[in-house]
Write a structure and sequence with these properties.
The complex is a heterodimer of chains A (163) and B (289). With 163 residues, chain A is an alpha+beta fold. Chain A contains 5 helices and 6 strands. Chain A is elongated and about 50 Å long. In chain B, the strands form 4 sheets. Chain B has a 5-stranded antiparallel beta sheet. In chain B, strands 11-12-13-14 form a 4-stranded antiparallel beta sheet. A 3-stranded parallel beta sheet of chain B has the order 1-3-2, with helices on one face. Chain B is built from 11 helices and 14 strands. The chains are: A alpha+beta (163), B alpha+beta (289).
């Protein structure tokens, strides 16, 4: 059976965001970024270049980092998404978030959610990264304030907390 | 930035997908990862009326080894899956390295190996190393399937031999006596940059003599280019620095670069010389494929 989404019509997409299930109505040409920001109000995910170059829209899809501007909402049907809003647990910030604050790794803040999620994806696959690993992991995230040094330090500090 | 509207079709099987593509012809595009297609649609370079999504075709996601055939990479394997796959890591680490050289983590989790071939972008990173390893591609269409050498697959920028209703389903790297291979690219930054030039090589060296060599140039011609004369410089000869230098020089002469925003003809030609020497040296010294 071929699933068909007609032009201009709204269709139901089921996604789990930060552990919560959502059913949202989207057009076929909506991106996951549109779905998160416009339909579900997860505005922590930022809209930057919209071409997959800047990383501001980075979210985790089934645990892996993706540019949500380059994933169609319908292609995310049935997937589990983590946005920056999902990192805080019971009112307590994630270690990465705390280290970003401790290291003043936030300037204008626009790249921060994407940077932190790229850091999160890195620490999940490699709990003890080198500085080089960290720099590579955030290679797809551009900081327009060029504040990379503190961002790298913050991620390394969060990794150190892994023992 | 809005993606122009289209009708989204998501088949459950490969024959269904081929039938849809055959039915809608040029007005339909295959959606695999979408990291290239959706950017082109946002930029207004493409406006397909139909997108045929391959997301349900799970059988095209696997990477496996089959006796007498070789390593089979499903077209929907992502770049990160290629990069970290244990079979490829063991047998053809240079393919993993080529996948690693692409874009950044977020794109490597979306973009697919098949997409990197089918888009036929001259600067694509997988075609040179795969051609250097004599890879073949399996193509399935309304009239059955065929296996074609990847070297014969590309016709020009954005153009391949894929016909109406045909889908590239698998990449096959056959078993081979190759002793070393390598892909080296030069981009303007380490992440998220297209190759200004890229060179892949594979060599079979026995007792210091080059039995066979393949050199494939990327981003310096409308399609990936075999540097056959440079290969001839090596074949049958004792490996030496002078021989490698000569191969680099000949490869540069064989390349057909253009001047664009990433580099001039002269710069690219010089890069081919340098990268060919480095790639060959790495392939010869590496001790694995």
């Amino acid at each position: 059976m071929v699933t068909v989404m007609k032009k201009g019509k709204l269709h139901v997409v089921n996604v789990t965001v930060n552990g919560r299930e959502h059913a949202a109505l989207v057009k076929a040409n909506a991106t996951l970024l549109d779905l998160l920001r416009e339909e579900l109000d997860y505005t922590g995910t930022k809209k930057g270049c919209e071409l997959g170059d800047c990383g501001a829209c980075t979210v985790l899809m089934d645990g892996k980092s993706v540019n949500s501007c380059l994933v169609l909402a319908v292609e995310a049907d049935g997937r589990s998404i983590t946005t920056i809003e999902g990192l805080e647990k019971d009112g307590k910030l994630d270690r990465l978030q705390e280290e970003f604050i401790n290291h003043t790794a936030v300037q204008c803040g626009y790249c921060t959610p994407g940077m932190i999620l790229s850091g999160k994806a890195l620490l999940a696959r490699n709990p003890h990264p080198t500085e080089r690993d960290v720099r590579e992991a955030i290679g797809g995230n551009i900081c327009r304030c060029t504040g990379y040094v503190r961002i790298v330090k913050a991620i390394l500090a969060a990794a150190e907390a892994n023992g | 930035m809005i993606i122009p509207e289209f009708e989204y079709l998501s088949p459950q099987t490969l024959p269904e997908a081929c039938a849809l593509l055959a039915q809608y012809g040029d007005s339909a595009k295959v959606l695999a990862g979408g990291s290239d297609l959706l950017v082109k649609m946002k930029d207004g370079l493409m406006q397909p009326a139909y997108l045929v999504s391959l997301k349900n075709l799970d059988t095209l996601k696997a990477i496996r080894y089959q006796e007498r055939t070789g390593v089979i990479i499903g077209a929907l394997a992502t770049h990160n899956e290629v990069m970290t796959n244990s079979i490829l890591q063991e047998k053809y680490r240079s393919v993993c390295e080529a996948a690693h050289s692409m874009a950044a983590d977020q794109i490597r989790n979306i973009g697919t190996a098949g997409g990197n071939l089918v888009n036929a972008v001259p600067s694509a990173d997988l075609p040179p190393i795969l051609i250097a390893l004599d890879a073949k591609v399996r193509i399935v269409g309304p009239n059955g399937e065929k296996t074609v050498a990847l070297e014969e697959f590309f016709l020009g920028p954005g153009k391949t031999i894929l016909g109406n209703g045909e889908i590239l389903t698998e990449i096959i790297i056959p078993d081979q006596p190759t002793t070393g291979s390598n892909y080296i690219k030069f981009g303007l930054r380490r992440a998220g940059a297209l190759a200004v030039a890229g060179v892949a090589s594979s060599v079979t060296v026995s007792q210091g003599t080059c039995q066979d060599a393949r050199i494939v140039l990327g981003a310096v011609a409308p399609t990936p280019l075999r540097a056959r004369q440079a290969e001839n410089v090596l074949r049958g000869n004792k490996i030496s620095q002078e021989l490698i230098d000569e191969a680099g020089k000949v490869a540069a002469e064989e390349s057909k670069p253009i001047t664009d925003i990433r580099g001039s003809i002269e710069y690219r030609r010089n890069l081919v010389n340098v990268l060919t020497r480095r790639s060959l040296k790495a392939a010869i010294e590496k001790g694995h494929v």
